[in-house]
Structures are given as structure tokens and as C-alpha cells.
Amino acid sequence: MKLIGSVLCAALVVGAAGVAHAAATVSINDFYFLPAKDTVRVGDVVTWENDGDATHTTTRSAGANLWDSGFIGPAGTFQHQFNSPGTFTYHCNVHPTLMNGTIVVLAVTPAKGATWSGLRKTYSKAGKVKVQRARK
Questions:
Q1: Which of 5, 8, 10, 90 is buried deepest, with most CB atoms within 10 A?
Q2: Could you tell me the pTM of the whole model?
Q3: Which listed CATH number (1.25.10.10, 3.40.50.300, 2.60.40.420, 3.30.70.20) goes with 10-126?
């Protein structure tokens, strides 16, 4: 089932320590990223899914934590792991003036008894970012 226009959080086991991290999915549409801004933790993997009809890229070509997906055709995907905190802007090389996005990477761990999903929603509300769907 394809989730168009929504954020899907899934569990991802990272490293030998067995720490579970939430991974975000960004939908690539013609001609925008949805969500345009998302928040994850250090160590999380973000997946971009091309839900549109045109070919796109997800590219960070300046600053720290560079990546370039190359061309992502319709129904294609690309993943990138974020290993340091910060705010990372990116764009589509095919449509650089139309398609821009931001990933905010937090170096935080939920307090005992709290969930990352709850923390993510709290941060997103403070930053006026709408999280449309989240799972533990």
C-alpha cells in the first residue's frame, strides 16, 4: 500500500547496540517534497519515495552531510542515514527552484517512559511542522 503525502515512521535497528530509531519517509511528488520539513534523530535513515510521474533527485550539494540520489524514476526510492545533528536543506537537481526540503536532525533521546513518536510530535508542533502519521 503506497502512502502518498504522508510521513511513515517505522522501526529500524541500528548497530550492535540494538537501539531502535524511527525512520522517516518523504514523498516526492510533481513538483514538491512532502513533508517539506521533517525531524529525525541522529542515526535515523530517511527514505525518499517518488510518488510522481516525473524523474527527480534528492540532493544536498553544499555544507555538511552531502548526498546525491542520482535520478529517481517514478516508484523509485533513495535512502540516506543522518549521523550528525543539524539542519540539512536539500533540493531536486531537475527542478531546483521548485523542489526544496529540510531535514532537522536532533541529538536527543526520549526521557525514560517517553516515546520518540511523542517527542517528535512535540518538537514538530513547536516548529510548526505537521506530522501526519507516526508509529512507535
A1: 90
A2: 0.68
A3: 2.60.40.420
